[in-house]
């Protein structure tokens, strides 16, 4: 089922209606996220479920899945980070309400009738998942493989040399 997703929605009304919005968003259309990517030519898939919880709080669940191409801060090569992120938000109109929420619900401050920018919400969620200094896992990182290859012989030499000198000295002393 294809539906056109509006950029901005009334979350209170959608919660009333129990609506689900499903779609895809281009990563390069997210101005805060795009500069952090090594390659921003992908898309994120999202599902937004609006409704009310058992205590009749207006809530929305967001799930975002995508693959982000980041730059490894160790080897500067690109690395792919799989994202499958889900969050439950409760619509609140002020800090008092936000403080009363159970742990599993994040507050989403929104005045009654105020519109919600879906792209911004998705972008916030994706930004939270980006490490401040992204790196390959050690075994996959090019820098480490290179460094290891260059360093090993050097380290071996340094380790061998003092012993070789000591052994030579001892031999020399004993001989004379
Ligand atoms: Zn790396």
Write the SSE topology:
Elements: E1 8-9, H1 11-17, E2 20-26, E3 43-52, E4 58-71, E5 78-92, H2 95-99, E6 106-109, E7 116-117, H3 118-128, H4 142-175
Parallel strand pairs: 5-6
Antiparallel strand pairs: 1-7, 2-3, 3-4, 4-5
Bound molecules: zinc ion (ZN).
Describe the structure.
With 176 residues, the protein is of the alpha+beta class. The chain folds into two domains: 8-136, no CATH class; 137-176. The protein has four helices and seven strands, in the order E-H-E-E-E-E-H-E-E-H-H. Strands 2-3-4-5-6 form a five-stranded mixed β-sheet. It has helices at residues 11-17, 95-99, 118-128, 142-175; strands at 8-9, 20-26, 43-52, 58-71, 78-92, 106-109, 116-117. The longest helix is centred in the last third of the chain and has 34 residues, at 142-175. The protein binds zinc ion (ZN). Zinc ion (ZN) binds at residues 72, 74-75, 77, 135-136, 141-143.
Based on secondary structure, the structural category is alpha+beta
Helix-strand string = EHEEEEHEEHH
- How is the main sheet built? 5 strands, mixed
How many beta-strand runs? Answer: 7
Computed over alpha carbons, the radius of gyration is 27 Å
* Fraction of helical residues: 25-40%
List of distinct ligands in this structure = zinc ion
Shape: elongated
Note the gap between the termini. 94 Å
Number of domains: 2
Low-confidence stretches: 151-159
Rounded mean pLDDT score: 84
Query: What fraction of residues sit in β-strands?
Result: 25-35%
The number of helical segments is 4
Strand order across the largest sheet? 2-3-4-5-6
């Amino acid at each position: 089922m294809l539906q056109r997703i509006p950029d901005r929605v009334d979350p209170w009304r959608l919660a009333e209606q129990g609506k689900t919005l499903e779609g895809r968003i281009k990563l390069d259309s997210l101005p805060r996220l795009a500069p952090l990517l090594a390659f921003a030519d992908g898309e994120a898939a999202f599902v937004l479920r609006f409704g009310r919880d058992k205590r009749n709080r207006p809530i929305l669940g967001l799930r975002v899945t995508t693959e982000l191409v980041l730059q490894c801060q160790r080897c500067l090569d690109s690395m792919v980070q799989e994202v499958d992120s889900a969050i439950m938000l409760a619509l609140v109109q002020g800090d008092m309400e936000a403080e009363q929420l159970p742990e599993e619900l994040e507050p989403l401050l929104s005045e009654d009738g105020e519109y919600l920018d879906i792209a911004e919400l998705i972008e916030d969620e994706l930004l939270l998942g980006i490490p401040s200094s992204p790196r390959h896992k050690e075994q996959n990182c090019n820098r480490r493989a290179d460094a290891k290859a260059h360093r090993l012989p050097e380290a071996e030499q340094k380790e061998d040399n003092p012993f070789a000198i000591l052994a030579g000295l001892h031999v020399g002393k004993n001989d004379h």
